[in-house]
Automatic annotation (TrEMBL):
Substrate binds at residues 79, 130, 175, 182, 206, 258, 276. It catalyses: L-glutamine + H2O = L-glutamate + NH4(+). One of its GO terms (biological process) is glutamate biosynthetic process. The keyword Hydrolase applies. InterPro entries: Beta-lactam/transpept-like, Glutaminase. It comes from Chitinophaga terrae (ex Kim and Jung 2007). This is Glutaminase. One of its GO terms (molecular function) is glutaminase activity. Homotetramer. Keywords: Acetylation, Hydrolase, Signal. The keyword Hydrolase applies. The gene is glsA. Gene3D superfamilies: DD-peptidase/beta-lactamase superfamily (3.40.710.10). Its EC number is 3.5.1.2.
Length: 322
């Protein structure tokens, strides 16, 4: 009955900068020798990133930033981009359109599953799996037109990160040369009426979005914007209406770590999103966001160390949203 009292007392007193620093440093040291996991190997560029790199950034709702480890190295944003593409589409078309045209249900299957599309009534399932992300991207590219779309998306992502992001060209080329599986998914969705622009254009655009280079600090600000009700906690720019933020977080909480999201929410209780580049973002609404970078992944495609570090920090700061 009283087991939780120590952490609760810690979280209830006003946290000082020293507390945040102590917690992230402890998380860093505790897991830095972790040997489990393996870099993504189906995208050649990701396979050769140094697996020893590890960084943690925590940003509070009021824009205080705490960091430890490798927080400047730019790695592939990969699937984490899906969250911000979703934000943009929700801003433009509203939350009902996301439900009708994409979906909001967990597949229980890997992020690039073809059977998931068939099982879910030929729908893309949700915006955070490859099928749903490409369909969401196709809403944007058809809305803005092929010429203008990149600049619009680029501006929007820059708002979240607080600086303009660049594509890692080598990553884009490496992924574009090996993404036949995603092309097939895009074509399949087209055949079922759930692709809203030219499927191969949308697939290529999505691949480019996945190739954004971000560091852990960028990701923390991006996630921090969601922790702060849609306003970037550092630049104070509003990126998404407050009423949409819980919808985005709900989808992250349902499917952000793919088929292991249920276990993640059971153990940690923070809406999160992973990418095969080794990043994970987690949002404690109204308090703070955490971004962790460490390339070695588990079988589902989620960074091993990032999961360990975020669970540790969340427990210490009593952040479980439930
Ligand atoms: O489409 C892909 O396969 C990659 N660009 C992104 C996948 C990804 O990050 C899934 N993450 N855990």
């Amino acid at each position: 009955l009283f087991l939780g009292s120590a952490t609760t007392a810690f979280a209830q007193k006003k946290l000082r900068p020293a507390d945040y620093n102590a917690v992230i440093n402890e998380a860093y040291n505790r897991f830095k020798d972790e040997k489990e996991g393996k870099n993504a190997d189906y995208i050649p560029f990701l396979a050769k990133v140094d697996p020893g790199m590890y960084g943690i950034v925590l940003v509070t709702k009021d824009g205080q930033v705490y960091q430890v480890g490798e927080t400047k190295f730019e790695f592939g944003i990969e699937s984490i981009e899906k969250v911000f593409t979703l934000c943009m589409a929700m801003e433009l078309f509203g939350d009902q359109a996301i439900l009708d045209k994409i979906g909001a249900d967990q597949t229980g299957l890997p992020f690039n599953s073809v059977p998931a599309i068939e099982i879910d009534g030929k729908k893309p399932s949700n915006p955070l799996v490859n099928a749903g992300a490409m369909a969401t991207t196709s809403l944007l590219t058809s809305h803005f037109g092929h010429e203008a779309a990149w600049e619009k998306v680029d501006d929007y992502f820059a708002g979240f990160a607080g600086r303009r992001l660049k594509i890692i060209d080598e990553l884009y080329k490496s992924e574009a040369a090996t993404n036949e599986h995603n092309q097939a998914i895009a074509m399949l969705l087209k055949s079922y009426g759930y692709m809203y622009d030219d499927p191969l254009f949308a697939c290529d655009f999505y691949t480019r979005q996945c190739s954004y280079g971000v560091n852990a600090h960028d990701l923390a600000l991006m996630a921090g914007t969601l922790a702060n009700g849609g306003v970037n906690p550092v630049t104070k720019e509003r990126l998404i209406q407050e009423k949409y933020v819980p919808k985005v977080l709900a989808i992250m909480g349902t499917t952000g770590l793919y088929e292991t999201t249920g276990q993640w929410m059971y153990k940690v209780g923070l809406p999160s999103k992973s990418g095969v580049g080794g990043g994970i973002i987690s949002v404690m609404p109204g308090r703070f966001a955490i971004a962790v970078f460490s390339p070695p992944l588990d079988k589902a495609g989620n960074s091993v160390r990032a999961q360990e570090a975020i669970k540790f920090i969340s427990d210490k700061l009593n952040a479980n949203v439930y």
